[in-house]
């Protein structure tokens, strides 16, 4: 269905575990990034670590599309849980994504609304969403898998007040620092995408402790889902 699939993770913990399952044919250096081209689960893949934050993620996504010809993009990694029903190591599959730290309310726009754009909420591809969700359910890890909104900002959320706002104002299921930027660029290029996030923390006062303890296990959960969904798309 997709000739070339781009896979983006922000950190080494999210990308290196996927490299172990990839037959790498070529490595290209560009804009300080390392793009690994090859095969994973029989699919043509370009795997890259974009670095942390929205600008890094956006730049990386555009290069994947423009230079490496990605016909679909999977953004994998970890996030902070916003929904009460989510626990550490549970997984969220994006239905859509938005940038929670975009604030033009002084000009009469709603929080998160980007001026002069048709939409500020970027919808994930239904086929990729269902493939990821099925992969999560079939994985049998015992952790919850749910579909929901990913809310992105250049901030590590570790405050209950901020967490509550992201739920009340944006109806977020989880929060992280790259997904909506990947989604934004994919939407502008009309490229299908999905975001897969395993929970490393609960985005509250204990987030920094939980993150350090669970980030590698959470990244492992995301990796398992990516490998499984590649077999079905």
From TrEMBL:
GO-annotated cellular components: cytosol
What GO terms in the biological process aspect are recorded for it?
A: L-methionine salvage from methylthioadenosine; L-methionine salvage from S-adenosylmethionine; nucleoside catabolic process
What InterPro entries does its record include?
Answer: MTA_SAH_Nsdase, Nucleoside_phosphorylase_d, Nucleoside_phosphorylase_sf
Q: Which UniProt keywords apply?
A: Amino-acid biosynthesis, Glycosidase, Hydrolase, Methionine biosynthesis
Gene3D superfamilies the record matches: Nucleoside phosphorylase domain (3.40.50.1580)
The chain's coiled-coil residues are: none
Keyword Hydrolase attributed = yes
Matching SUPFAM superfamilies: Purine and uridine phosphorylases
Which residue intervals define the domain Nucleoside phosphorylase in the entry?
5-230
Which pathway does the UniProt entry assign to this protein? Amino-acid biosynthesis; L-methionine biosynthesis via salvage pathway; S-methyl-5-thio-alpha-D-ribose 1-phosphate from S-methyl-5'-thioadenosine (hydrolase route): step 1/2
State the source organism's domain of life: Bacteria
Annotated EC:
3.2.2.9
Tell me, what is one Gene Ontology molecular-function annotation carried by this entry?
A: methylthioadenosine nucleosidase activity
What is the protein's name according to its record?
A: adenosylhomocysteine nucleosidase
Q: Which organism is it from?
A: Peptoclostridium acidaminophilum DSM 3953
């Amino acid at each position: 269905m997709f000739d070339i699939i781009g896979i983006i993770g922000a950190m080494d913990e999210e990308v290196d575990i996927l490299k172990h399952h990839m037959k790498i044919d070529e490595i290209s250096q560009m804009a300080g990034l390392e793009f690994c081209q090859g095969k994973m689960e029989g699919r043509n893949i370009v795997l890259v670590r974009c670095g942390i934050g929205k600008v890094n993620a956006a730049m990386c996504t555009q290069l994947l599309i423009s230079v490496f010809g990605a016909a679909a993009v999977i953004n994998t990694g970890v996030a902070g849980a916003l929904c009460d029903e989510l626990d550490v190591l549970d997984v969220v599959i994006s239905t859509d994504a938005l940038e929670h730290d975009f604030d033009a309310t002084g000009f009469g726009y709603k929080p998160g609304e980007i001026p002069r754009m048709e939409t500020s909420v970027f919808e994930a591809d239904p086929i990729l969403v269902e493939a990821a969700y099925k992969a999560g359910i079939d994985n049998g890890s015992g952790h919850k898998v749910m579909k929901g909104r990913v809310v992105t900002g250049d901030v590590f959320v570790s405050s209950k007040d901020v967490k509550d706002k992201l739920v009340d104002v944006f109806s977020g299921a989880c929060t992280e620092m790259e997904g909506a930027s990947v989604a934004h660029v994919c939407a502008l290029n009309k490229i299908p995408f999905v975001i897969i996030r395993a929970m490393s923390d609960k985005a509250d006062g204990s987030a920094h402790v939980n993150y350090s303890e669970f980030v590698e296990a959470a990244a492992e959960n995301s990796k398992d889902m990516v490998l499984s969904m590649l077999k079905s798309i």
